[in-house]
Design brief:
Blueprint lengths: L2 H19 L3 H9 L9 H13 L3 H14 L4 H13 L3 H14 L4 H13 L3 H14 L4 H4 L12 H11 L1
């Protein structure tokens, strides 16, 4: 790619990112469409494309660009989080868990990854792993305790004595 095309692509991707930050997902996708084949985007462009689709609740369509973004920039945990979010919403908890476990290998001290894994394991019926990841999230960032009561993903284990014990410890 020559310098002129690189600069053009960078400007368009930045424009799309700006639209997305302003909550204008449709405009972000329109801007990216000026680049032609979306598969030619770099990791940042793929992430913006996937995030725009995700914000429009087009989860199934968002999976591929987010997967490619995560593969292209394996240290971008935001791509993994967004990808996991989409997998969850299309009923693929197994893939959501797998995705966030890969991200956790990159960033083992990221509380949001631990928290989301706790949610996903709760939904999957794996109480022990849900509690383990929630404990880890709370050890890293105690303020996550404020999210527990209103998190519907914990409903499957909310009345479990072990989960209640964890909740009592963090509230106390």
């Amino acid at each position: 790619m020559n310098a002129r095309n690189y600069i053009r692509r960078s400007k368009i991707q930045s424009e799309a990112e700006g639209h997305l930050e302003l909550g204008m997902a449709h405009q972000a996708l329109l801007a990216l469409s000026h680049l032609g084949d979306p598969s030619a985007l770099d990791s940042k462009g793929l992430y913006v494309w996937g995030e725009a689709l995700r914000s429009l609740e087009r989860y199934e369509e968002a999976i591929e660009p987010l997967r490619l973004a995560a593969e292209a920039a394996s240290d971008n945990i935001h791509a993994y989080l967004a990808l996991g979010w989409c997998y969850k919403r299309v009923g693929r908890l197994d893939m959501a868990i797998n995705t966030l476990e890969r991200a956790l290998a990159v960033e083992p001290d990221e509380p949001l990854l631990c928290y989301n894994l706790a949610c996903y394991f709760s939904l999957a019926g794996d109480k022990q792993r849900a509690i383990r990841h929630m404990s880890q999230a709370l050890a890293i960032e105690p303020n996550y305790r404020h999210l527990i009561d209103d998190e519907p993903d914990f409903d499957p284990i909310r009345n479990d004595p072990d989960f209640q014990s964890l909740c009592q410890k963090v509230k106390g």
